[in-house]
């Protein structure tokens, strides 16, 4: 995993960086009653307060300790766009002036939030805006959690809630593995936001060692693999990560995951006009994925990024690609496009922000 600078935070951890078990250790180490940990957790994730002063059932002495030892994550809203389809995209500025994106999407089944795990990305996918400018640093678990809390605070105004989470924003989650796993632990805790494990999906470009680690975590959280090509040669051109973790190794890791967990993997496939969207590509992909008993491919019409040269696959060609996969006994769906009128694709808003001289 790449080394990255820690967030600028006055030397204090964030309150969201701690799991309930961490809080239990902290209150014990500070001479406080054990039940105070649950109270703090409740204030953070059920009542969703934004300052220690609001934690009214805590003694003043305890609140003073919290003020002295912790900070709340400061996500300063730089921009807030609402799409015609209800999608909301936030551009947030962090304490160190770096910028990240968070997207809230409305579905018939509820509200889904797409969170960012890194400031920038070093994976270098040639069709993605997130990699523009490279990797600045990893986010702490607390900075990832704060995105969900912010989204939930917005939804509180209309009596709604975050019902699902996709870890598909800026960055490669499996290159910030430990912080992402801590984030997930807090998200699924029944005394916290209590998001169902099967309503959470983490996506990776194929960091093979951590696919094995994730398989061994014994969770019900969904896994998605960004595949985008049916062979090594093309995938290496589109996704340089394939040179580190070749196709064969990725497929073996996926086989291990399925054997260990019994769960299905979703393969994300961004269709790029004239690049990876031809019938022969679909036929080759179907053969590759036949080794998986319940393979599912999510076809994604590529988003236009001004700094990239890829064009969107024609509508009829998308359906042809889908039909070929299904004839090959591979289930395939076409992702519903959301937020196109507000640059909701990953990294687009931050890229525009960076053009203005921001970080």
Automatic annotation (TrEMBL):
Keywords noted in UniProt: 4Fe-4S, Cytoplasm, Disulfide bond, Iron, Iron-sulfur, Metal-binding, Methyltransferase, rRNA processing, S-adenosyl-L-methionine, Transferase, tRNA processing
EC number(s) recorded for this UniProt protein: 2.1.1.192
Domain Radical SAM core per the UniProt entry, residue ranges: 107-341
Family matches, as SUPFAM superfamilies: Radical SAM enzymes
Cofactor note: Binds 1 [4Fe-4S] cluster. The cluster is coordinated with 3 cysteines and an exchangeable S-adenosyl-L-methionine.
Pfam assignment, any one: Radical_SAM
Primary location: cytoplasm
Reactions performed catalytically: adenosine(37) in tRNA + 2 reduced [2Fe-2S]-[ferredoxin] + 2 S-adenosyl-L-methionine = 2-methyladenosine(37) in tRNA + 5'-deoxyadenosine + L-methionine + 2 oxidized [2Fe-2S]-[ferredoxin] + S-adenosyl-L-homocysteine; adenosine(2503) in 23S rRNA + 2 reduced [2Fe-2S]-[ferredoxin] + 2 S-adenosyl-L-methionine = 2-methyladenosine(2503) in 23S rRNA + 5'-deoxyadenosine + L-methionine + 2 oxidized [2Fe-2S]-[ferredoxin] + S-adenosyl-L-homocysteine
Keyword Cytoplasm: yes
Molecular function, one GO term: metal ion binding
Protein's UniProt keywords contain Transcription: no
Residues binding S-adenosyl-L-methionine, per UniProt: 171-172, 203, 226-228, 303
GO CC aspect terms: cytoplasm
Swiss-Prot/TrEMBL GO biological process terms: rRNA base methylation; tRNA methylation
PROSITE patterns attached to this UniProt entry: RADICAL_SAM (PS51918)
Residues annotated to bind [4Fe-4S] cluster: 121, 125, 128
HAMAP family: RNA_methyltr_RlmN
Function: Specifically methylates position 2 of adenine 2503 in 23S rRNA and position 2 of adenine 37 in tRNAs.
Protein name per Swiss-Prot or TrEMBL: Probable dual-specificity RNA methyltransferase RlmN
Species per Swiss-Prot/TrEMBL record: Paenibacillus cremeus
